[in-house]
Design a protein that fits this description.
about 325 residues; alpha+beta; Phosphorylase Kinase, domain 1; 2 domains; 14 helices; about 45% helix; globular
Length: about 325
């Protein structure tokens, strides 16, 4: 596997570092930042030139053929985005160098982006308040991405489908939902299934762990497995906001309303909501846009085999629905 990756890496070296010849040796580092939840998850490898401090390329390799569709879909997304995005946005997206299969397992080889990950969502609203410039940069970029590739208006019914609720109830029961709470959510959603929302491109997994920074500026966005060119324009903004509640929810604790509101009131999120208001979108607490987005995030987690994350979104939705 490594030999084949190095062969493709050298074949595309002029795109990575045109000023130097390909190195005689390449060092590979496997990242293992979290447990691999299911067979669909991929191995992540960083390629360093000899004596280099920073990676020049990234390889993602399916651990099992069941994960091929995810990786191959990401490769097509990266290829497409590199062709259609404005340069200011495209240079923040990894450039696809090569994709193929090794022993019937899909792989991608792409450029490595500079920057550092900052998990300010794990600090809570108080800790993240001192990172306002980075939060603002991340939210602005997400909105610029949606605006760059607009699509026809989208209805929640077409976006989610009726099966999203059925899958959600299975997990909601596990975290303490009762019949009354279910009826309350259905009543809140019922008038809005046919609402038309502005739509555009979305990353689809826009958590701080997938956003890179250099100083106060956003330098890259990685992991485009769940990207789509047709989603509500607020999907990534709400995903980013909801990430602040995920830590508590994954540990089995219902996020407190004061915690949700404190994040909601952060200045960068207020600014993002103002931008969306000009297009008729209200992301205030208790709005149906938020409930539908949490259903969508739950559905995505289930499809990716991340059941604990799906349960977390059920807990967050419960806390938002209670609204106290």
């Amino acid at each position: 596997m490594i030999q084949l990756l190095e062969q493709h890496l050298r074949g595309h070296w002029s795109l990575l570092d045109p000023a130097t010849p390909p190195p005689s040796s390449v060092h590979w580092l496997k990242l293992g930042m979290e447990e691999y939840p299911e067979k669909e998850s991929a191995l992540l490898l960083l390629a360093f030139p000899a004596h280099g401090r920073w990676p020049l390329a990234v390889a993602k390799v399916a651990r099992d053929p069941e994960g091929n569709a995810w990786l191959e879909g990401e490769g097509e997304q990266l290829r497409r985005l590199g062709q259609v995005l404005p340069e200011a946005l495209a240079r923040r997206v990894p450039r696809l160098l090569h994709q193929g299969r090794i022993n019937d397992c899909a792989f991608l080889l792409m450029t490595a982006l500079p920057g550092e990950v900052e998990l300010h969502n794990t600090w809570g609203a108080r800790g993240a308040g001192g990172r306002g410039a980075r939060l603002q940069a991340a939210l602005d970029w997400a909105l610029d991405l949606a605006a760059a590739l607009p699509s026809a208006p989208l209805q929640p019914a077409a976006w989610l489908g009726t099966e999203a609720l059925a899958a959600f109830w299975e997990d909601a029961i596990q975290v303490g939902w009762d019949a009354a709470l279910r009826q309350q959510l259905e009543a809140r959603l019922e008038p809005h299934w046919q609402t038309h929302w502005p739509a555009g491109c979305a990353h689809g997994d826009y958590f701080p762990g997938n956003v890179l920074f250099r100083g106060r500026a956003l330098s890259g966005v990685v992991d485009w497995t769940l990207a789509t060119e047709r989603a509500p324009i607020f999907l990534d903004v709400l995903t980013y906001e909801c990430s602040f509640a995920v830590q508590a929810a994954r540990r089995g604790r219902l996020p407190e309303w004061r915690e949700i509101r404190a994040v909601h009131d952060l200045a960068p999120l207020r600014t993002a909501r103002l931008r969306l208001q000009s297009q008729g979108i209200d992301l205030g607490l208790g709005r149906p846009e938020r409930f539908f987005t949490l259903l969508a995030l739950h559905r995505t987690a289930r499809r990716a085999g991340r059941r604990p994350m799906g349960l977390a979104f059920a807990r967050i939705l419960q806390a938002e629905l209670a609204g106290r």
